[in-house]
Design a protein that fits this description.
Blueprint lengths: L18 H8 L7 E2 L11 H12 L12 H15 L6 E4 L1 H13 L5 E6 L3 H9 L3 E6 L8 H7 L4 E7 L11 H13 L3 E5 L21 E6 L12 E4 L2 H12 L7 H10 L5 H18 L13 E2 L8 H10 L2 E2 L1 E2 L10 E4 L4 H15 L2
Parallel strand pairs: 1-10, 3-4, 3-5, 5-6, 6-7
Antiparallel strand pairs: 2-8, 7-8, 9-12, 11-12
Helix pairs in contact: 2-9, 3-9, 4-5, 4-8, 10-12
Length: about 375
């Protein structure tokens, strides 16, 4: 009988188990861990949105929708973007989360051998999706402060460059790009006719003023946003993509043969979610951002995050993996930086946890940093 691995496609050789999953494996024996590893809000879906989803289920809205998404949700998305940008006239595709949108976008636009510029550190999915499709991820260093530098982007461009992926506010660093940084990066993309994919899933989580968007700056921007973080709908798998018509059309065609459509009852709830005020939650997360930054900066070399709910300190001793192992042994769950980077010098903390948990984490991490 042959080895089971013999049936696997070669593309699987470039993908290992999630580094986050490995952390949970290491922590399986802990009775009461201080969990600062989870990248999802600790509040729940707004009750009115739950009620709308339940109403939709009971009303029989449990079948397929059209592939591009229900018209009321697409129009609600378009109207919200008109209010934000002053003008908006582009096709909207409702996706199964931003992750689903990323898969469709990359499938539609990346050929084998195409190079994709990815600022490092990065959300882990970018690298693996590019590799799965036979593309070449080209990592653009943003250390030490994790901000975009147009000269580094320009130096990484070759004749094979096809895409630039942006993520602001960012996972894992919490950085929010300034409008000047975005404009300079977009100018590099425009000069070389490069598609920009702007992952803005954390756009609501901006603590020092609104997070600038790449959308208004360039005709060749594919904007991906979603409901998972802002409305705590991580399990509902609901997002959207807007961008150049040929790309959205290609993504819609691909959705027919993959996801088919986003979940129907949750599309109904999404219309209401767009109108829901979550400012109280954002205010609480700003307080947590301040708490963890002020609590760590005395012992750690750490940049103050402007958004999302992550902070990315440098690991004492130089090895993120070694420090995370020590942290887990001490009962704190954090993620080594090499999950999100070609370096292993930092670690990620998710402060989507109550203040007591954050304070316990700060005390333990500071103790570990002291020796």
């Amino acid at each position: 009988m042959g080895e089971p691995a013999a049936h696997l496609a070669r593309r699987m050789q470039g993908i290992d188990a999630s580094g986050i999953r490995k952390v949970f494996d290491l922590a399986a024996h802990l009775a009461d861990p201080i969990n600062l590893s989870i990248g999802q809000p600790d509040f729940d879906v707004p009750d009115a949105c739950k009620d709308r989803a339940i109403e939709a289920i009971r009303a029989g809205r449990n079948r397929y929708t059209v592939t591009q998404g229900d018209a009321p949700l697409r129009e609600a998305v378009a109207e919200s973007l008109r209010q934000e940008f002053g003008t908006f006239d582009a096709p909207v595709l409702i996706t199964s989360g931003v992750s689903g949108g990323l898969l469709l976008a990359f499938l539609a636009t990346i050929n084998p051998g195409d190079e994709v510029l990815i600022p490092d550190p990065y959300f882990v999915m970018y690298k693996h999706l590019v590799n799965l499709l036979g593309g070449v991820p080209v990592f653009v260093d943003t250390y030490p402060d994790f901000h975009l530098r147009a000269d580094r982007l320009a130096a990484a461009v070759t004749e094979r460059t096809r895409m630039l992926v942006l993520n602001s506010p960012a996972n894992p660093t919490g950085v929010v790009y300034t409008e000047a940084e975005l404009r300079a990066a977009i100018e590099v993309a425009r000069r070389h006719n490069v598609l920009v994919v702007s992952d803005e899933i954390y756009n609501a989580f901006a603590y020092d003023g609104p997070a600038p968007s790449a959308w208004p700056l360039y005709d060749e921007v594919l904007l991906l946003r979603g409901f998972s973080k802002t409305y705590a709908m991580t399990g509902w798998r609901l997002g959207y993509a807007v961008g150049p018509e040929p790309i959205i059309q290609a993504m819609t065609t691909l959705q027919q043969y993959t996801f088919v459509c986003a979940p129907a009852p949750f599309q109904a709830a999404g219309v209401l979610a767009i109108e829901t005020d979550v400012s109280a939650h954002i205010k609480e997360f700003r307080t947590r951002r301040n708490l963890i930054y002020e609590g760590l900066r005395g012992r750690f070399n750490v940049e103050k995050p402007g958004g999302a709910f992550y902070i990315f300190p440098e690991a004492p001793g130089g090895s993120g993996t070694d420090f995370v192992r020590r942290a887990i042994e001490a009962g704190v769950l954090v993620i080594p930086g090499n999950v999100f980077s070609e370096r292993d010098t930092h670690f990620r903390i998710a402060y989507a946890a109550d203040r007591t948990t954050i304070e316990r984490g700060i005390q333990t991490l500071n103790r570990l940093a002291g020796g």
